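Good morning,

Attaching, inline, the backbone tokens for the sequence recovery test we're adding to the shared suite. The designed sequence is right after.
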């Protein structure tokens, strides 16, 4: 008995300790991490150990999220100068490098696309074009999300598509109208004569035989003695129990059980299908949402500004190597666009097999023409609600295309770029065309009074005046839209990664890591790539993509240099895996 009490008391204490840990672990990690790892710079008074201390604290905070990620990214601003690694000005310069300006320009152009509703017009047009069956709708959603996430952030692309997906799901999963003919049961017994003495209900055989749910032998054979009690009698005293068209006189159904025949029939019908109505609706919703999410992630890998890890690699390559690398917009797209298309196709086929099926393995009933027309009406109504295309949308689209062309053909490598033709003494980076296009978006009016975009402006809420030529049009992009649409924390997070990498390079920590990883040179290079890409992929399941890229890519760079491998051969696959 005493042993039982001690075990019970120990279990209660462990439970209370676990609950206390769940409640207070963020504070313990926040305070304990710098205290525990502070032994590292005290034991080894070297620049490498001091820089490693700052990086370890940042990595723990990033992975546990005990402090907001952008705030953790600011640790080098005070950590490196206090530990005599980098000066304050040298650290702060990393937070606004050319790569970050290019990233900021790309984000601003994406905000302009959203501000003009151009993304909605593109999405609705694609959905109208591909068709309205569940399979075609999934392809349309994934294609649109993939394309948009190449240019705008993955989160913005997915957030823009979700309301459209939800509206179509409501129409696609709408229950059909209730039938108007049978009011209580699928079969209606006509000409019922009540025999009070016998307590039986007599059914006219002719009317019963004409019912659509009657069986071929003209008898309702229901094999459920607990639910329905069928009593048979014959006008003739024949010992044969077979019921024929002439012998059928009486079928007695319990009144309470008669009301349940409709549900029995429906349940029997559902047993022949893989999905019930509710399961089919859930499957369609899951398929559309997963397809949209996967397409947003995959689309961001195809263009350098599509997602944060791409620009982390871009900045590391520029800061680590003085000579130009082979990575530019053209070569990046040549490598990643085919990979993106293949991955999206594999994802679409996988979701289709899992939720829809083919042939005899089909899990979802085919879509009806009425349902497809209903969905098309919903999409067409939303598309027509956008009105005719405006000068605002045209201007943003033209400027966006110009920016992409300026990026791709700045210095493509396979031909002479426009930056090479200018023959300037200074280098023209990718941030220059990005900020130029952003400036033009703040200057060009969104609704100029020129043909064919001239429209009478009616302000019903204020003055109710029309056709006022002195009305000032807003610009294609406003600062309010930029303030609300730019993820400023992401900019700081990227700057923190660059500052962390710069401190590792200056302190010598990168070289030390490279020397320690030389032992991996005995392994084949493709095996190293597979192992590291797999590890980075699983790490992004618990840590954000940007955090994984900031921590992992500098180490991967040092590993490649230490074993004599081309860093791009290892860093580019890891970047795609982080995205």
């Amino acid at each position: 008995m005493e042993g039982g009490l001690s075990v019970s008391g120990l279990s209660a204490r462990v439970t209370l300790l676990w609950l206390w840990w769940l409640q207070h672990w963020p504070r313990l990690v926040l305070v304990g991490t710098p205290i525990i790892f502070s032994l590292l710079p005290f034991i080894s008074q070297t620049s490498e150990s001091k820089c490693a201390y700052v990086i370890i604290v940042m990595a723990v905070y990033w992975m546990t999220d005990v402090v907001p990620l952008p705030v953790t990214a600011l640790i080098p601003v005070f950590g490196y100068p206090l530990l005599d690694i980098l000066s304050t000005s040298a650290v702060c310069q990393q937070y606004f490098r050319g790569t970050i300006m290019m990233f900021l320009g790309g984000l601003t152009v994406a905000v302009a696309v959203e501000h003009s509703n151009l993304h909605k017009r593109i999405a609705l047009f694609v959905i109208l074009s591909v068709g309205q069956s569940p399979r075609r709708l999934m392809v349309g959603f994934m294609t649109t999300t993939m394309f948009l996430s190449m240019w705008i952030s993955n989160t913005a692309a997915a957030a823009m598509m979700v309301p459209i997906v939800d509206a179509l799901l409501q129409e696609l999963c709408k229950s059909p109208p209730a039938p108007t003919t049978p009011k209580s049961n699928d079969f209606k017994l006509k000409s019922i004569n009540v025999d009070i003495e016998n307590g039986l209900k007599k059914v006219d055989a002719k009317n019963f035989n004409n019912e659509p749910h009657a069986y071929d032998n003209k008898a309702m054979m229901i094999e459920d003695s607990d639910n329905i009690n069928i009593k048979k009698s014959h006008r003739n005293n024949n010992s044969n129990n077979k019921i024929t068209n002439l012998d059928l006189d009486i079928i007695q159904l319990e009144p309470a059980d008669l009301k349940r025949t409709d549900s029995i029939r429906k349940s029997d019908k559902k047993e022949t299908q893989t999905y019930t109505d509710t399961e089919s609706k859930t499957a369609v919703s899951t398929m559309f949402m997963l397809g949209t999410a996967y397409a947003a992630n995959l689309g961001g890998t195809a263009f350098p500004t599509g997602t944060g890890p791409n620009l982390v690699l871009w900045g590391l390559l520029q800061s680590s190597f003085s000579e130009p690398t082979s990575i530019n917009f053209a070569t990046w797209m040549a490598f990643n666009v085919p990979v993106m298309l293949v991955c999206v196709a594999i994802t679409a086929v996988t979701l289709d097999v899992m939720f829809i099926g083919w042939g005899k393995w089909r899990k979802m009933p085919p879509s009806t023409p009425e349902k497809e027309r209903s969905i098309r009406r919903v999409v067409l109504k939303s598309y027509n609600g956008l009105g005719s295309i405006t000068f605002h949308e045209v201007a943003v689209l033209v400027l966006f295309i110009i920016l992409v062309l300026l990026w791709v053909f700045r210095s493509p490598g396979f031909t002479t770029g426009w930056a090479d033709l200018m023959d300037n003494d200074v280098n023209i980076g990718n941030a220059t065309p990005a900020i130029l296009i952003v400036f033009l978006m703040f200057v060009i009016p969104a609704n100029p009074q020129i043909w064919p975009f001239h429209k009478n402006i009616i302000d019903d809420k204020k003055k109710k005046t029309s056709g006022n030529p002195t009305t000032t049009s807003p610009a294609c992009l406003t600062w309010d839209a930029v303030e609300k649409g730019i993820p400023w924390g992401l900019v700081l997070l990227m700057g923190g990664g660059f500052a962390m990498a710069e401190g590792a390079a200056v302190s010598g920590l990168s070289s030390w890591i490279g020397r320690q990883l030389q032992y991996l040179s005995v392994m084949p290079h493709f095996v190293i790539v597979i192992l590291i890409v797999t590890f980075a992929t699983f790490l992004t399941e618990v840590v954000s993509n940007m955090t994984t890229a900031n921590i992992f890519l500098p180490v991967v760079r040092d590993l490649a240099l230490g074993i004599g491998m081309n860093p791009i051969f290892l860093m580019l696959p890891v970047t795609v895996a982080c995205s």
